[in-house]
Amino acid sequence: MNTNSHSEDLKTIRKIMEESSRFLSLSGLSGVFAGIFALAGFIIAFISIRNADLFEAVNLDFILLVDALAVLVLTLAAGVYLSYRKAVRTGIRIWTGTTRRMLLNLLIPLISGSVFILFFYLNNDYHYIIPAMLLFYGLALVSAGKFTFGEIQYLGMLETLTGFFAAIFPDYSLFAWAFGFGLLHILYGVIMHKKYR
Amino acid sequence: MKEILNNLSKLLENRVRLGIMSALMVNESIDFNSLKELLDVTDGNLASHLKVLEEHLFIEVKKQFIGRKPHTSYSTTDYGKKVFNQHLGALEQLIKRN
């Protein structure tokens, strides 16, 4: 009986409990990249809208769509790549039951929200698109947070609040979008990167 | 001191068995292959430890067929949870004493 082996036992228990119930490969850096891509996307959108008279109306729609998709693809690519890299470095397996559960809980609100927003878009009702993006994204993070770093739930709550702000003050909704998807991500990413590196 | 030592479970002194129980404490059920990956042990090694835990009623085994493939999953019994929690409490107390 020695304390050393007891504390080793406790470490084992903790490690296995965490590894088997939480997705720990999510990289803080991917938050920073998501935020930077979002801000770049916001700047492009902002300039395009300001100079809308230079384009045909159809072109502006197209530019905004390509802009949004580019942000989405780059963010996902960075997230997947950095998480993969972190998994390799820490030796934690990436495709486990926990990962699948985390993704399921993330994707249910996210896909519901996307379909819902598609209805707005198809009805040419653009008012609540940005608030709905922020709201559903926030809810997706709160839901996925149970299976990864708990801190992500706070990010989710802030995104949801930002969504309500955008709904109440539609004139500022583009700025709310930049705040929610840009600044909050960067802030979150920096905090998590420092804490769990 | 004696009471604390009584709360330790001999069965859980083994790292693999301790690992199995730790994983099952925070998951409703886990299948064989996930446990194997998680604990990084061989089939035979894992199977023998699971057998011991099952025989001592720490865990329950559920066998079912998904399509034609047999699928075995494991979960803790209430008794297993109780023993694990006592064991964990005892470990913590022992460390605090030193």
List keywords for this structure.
heterodimer, A: 197 residues, mainly alpha, 7 helices, B: 98 residues, alpha+beta, 3-stranded antiparallel sheet, 59% helix, 18% strand
Give a short overview.
The complex is a heterodimer of chains A (197) and B (98). In chain A, 81% of the residues lie in helices and 0% in strands.
Largest sheet geometry of chain A: none
Q: How would you sum up the global shape of chain A?
A: elongated
Secondary structure category of chain B: alpha+beta
Beta-strand share of residues of chain B: 15-25%
Q: Please give the order of strands in the largest beta sheet of chain B.
A: 1-3-2
Helix content of chain B: 55-70%
Q: Summarize model confidence as the mean pLDDT of chain A.
A: 90
User: Taking Cα atoms only, what radius of gyration of chain A do you get, to the nearest Å?
Assistant: 19 Å
Which percent range fits the helix content of chain A?
over 70%
What oligomeric assembly is this protein in?
heterodimer
Low-confidence stretches of chain A: none
Order of helices and strands of chain B: HHEHHEEH
Question: What is the total tally of β strands of chain B?
Answer: 3
Query: How many individual β-strands of chain A?
Result: 0
Principal-axis shape of chain B equals elongated
**Overall pLDDT confidence of chain B:** 91
Sheet-strand content of chain A, in percent, reads under 5%
Q: Strand-and-helix sequence of chain A, N→C?
A: HHHHHHH
First CA to last CA of chain A: what distance? Answer: 34 Å
Give the terminus-to-terminus CA distance of chain B: 12 Å
